Predict the structure of Monosaccharide ABC transporter ATP-binding protein, CUT2 family.
Amino acid sequence: MSNAATIAAPGRPQTGTGVPILEVTNLSKHFGAIRALNDFSLKIHPGEVVALAGDNGAGKTTFIKSISGVFRPTAGEIRLEGKPVSFSTPQEARASGIETIYQDLALADNLSIGANIFLGREPMRKRFGFLPVLDRRKMAEAARDTMALLDFHVSRMDAPVSNFSGGQRQAVAIGRAVYWNARLLIMDEPTAALGVPEQRKVISLIHQLKAQGRGVIFISHNLQDIFAVSDRIVVMRRGVMAGERRISDTTHDEVVKLMVGG
């Protein structure tokens, strides 16, 4: 069954209610004597964007790698929609609905949108009854349907993604996660190195993910973007939670003080 049938946007849920998409309890990751992450707890509900902020070395990368199958946590529990999970590989996390979009996007520049959506999971069909060949029609339909859901428009859907701007490339990476029905998207510095119009496009895409009831972890050093798109901000420092605030109840200055320990 095509995943494209599962991407229709549901109504906007009430954030902070019901069973969390992700619930992390007392998660720790130690590398010998180094406690990169220590007793960290976090909940993310459907339709909620939670920002992670902190200086380099605060533990943000260790946390996302611990929930996405790159690292095996030293201690703690991860629940996905109420069920305990443990991932040995990023492939297992993706199969369960957790997609990580890193800053480099992991796109194949010479391939089309459809080919990038199915990268490593290419659909095949039988030709002449027995020869397997790429199902290019399915790839093209997936690209068209998924990009339409994200309100993404380019003149040529079959063009290589190297032709696209930074914001358009972000849309392709997000579209890939949406097509495979990701329930939780982890976005690592998605607006870095983009111009202001492209940053606005990415912020708009994240609002659409929120409206579809998906959970988003938004990692950024850009406080302006964090305040534009997030419901809550979690500040990390030296592997622990330094503070948690609702965006509506805090200020840039308070967040900076939490980050630096002032």
About this structure: Residues 114 and 137 are 9 Å apart (CA to CA). The chain has a mean pLDDT of 87. The chain has eight helices and twelve strands. The helical segments are 60-67, 90-95, 113-117, 136-149, 166-179, 196-211, 223-229, 252-260.
